What does this fold into?
Amino acid sequence: MNQLQRIEKALDRIRPALQKDGGNVELLDVQGNKVYLRLQGACQGCPSSMVTLKRGVMAAITQEAPEITEVIEVAPDGTERVTSTTDNDPWAGQARIDGIKLIIAIASGKGGVGKSTVAVNFALALKAKGLKVGLLDADIYGPSIPTMLGVTHVPPPVNERLTPAEAFGLKLISIGFFVPSDSPMIWRGPMVMKAIDQFLHDVSWGELDCLVIDLPPGTGDAQLTLAQQVPVDGVVIVTTPSDVALIDARRGLQMFKKVNVPVLGIVENMSYFICPHCDERTDIFSAGGGRDVAKLLETEFLGEIPLDTMIRASGDRGAPVVVSEPDSKQAKVFKDFADVVWNKVTRMLPSWNKSACHVFIPKPGAIPVRIMTK
It folds into this structure.
């Protein structure tokens, strides 16, 4: 196979993804180590076209023709834009997951703030809006989401790819399905990173409007791996009103800014307690801290979620409040929160449902984590 045929083969690999979004790519010429091409349709002039060139077109071409060092886009007016393999891009490994339009992460600076409860009910609230939603439990050291959704196992793998479990219409994957519930996860960073990589790229997610990722608390390997592997469309920081939680929330927010993940805002969990006997509000963990931090760090305050027995009990029995008590005040709090987040994301990406980029170049020679092949 000559060089021109190898380059055409590479472009044929990504054309279906581009065409899926109303775009295409035309090969114009090859001169030595340079490829000249033109983006067509929706890809031409798209704000994400440089990402398409660098992480889609360039990645595919260099896999088939490693001698190519530059891809040059020729616009209809004759102007040229160069993408090079020597570009200093620390996120060059990012790639959209095929079939997934948006990725929203739920994070916290510290444990114990109810992040997983927020993630589960947020995902279910999006599902209640008629969206196709997946939930990735990336909290490797404390995978509690299978318990909250009442699921104990996943279907067997198909064609060496993991099949997600399903609960209440959500597609779900978690390390909790692959290790005994009483077994501690004594993993170093590289194993955590490999597991998250497999959950992102080796799971048959199918077509999703949104993948919600429940991150582990803190600012470590899991967060960095996610930022480097896939373009995250936004992250929500979960905190409580207490001063200790707010300090860590600030750290988490600043970390995501440094790795170029858009921060959608801060949500305050366990914000207040309503007495079931007299309806009096008590601010057990202080009050107003989340709103103040959001204002200080110039991000949006997304809402207050109460400390409530129904929310806790519904998660314990595997039927979160959004599905077990959909008309309750508690469920409405999560649905209102989900509306705020979703409206913000779709304002940021107004054409998400029509032209979200689906370019996905599988990693050759990917090695699965052994423990996860049940």
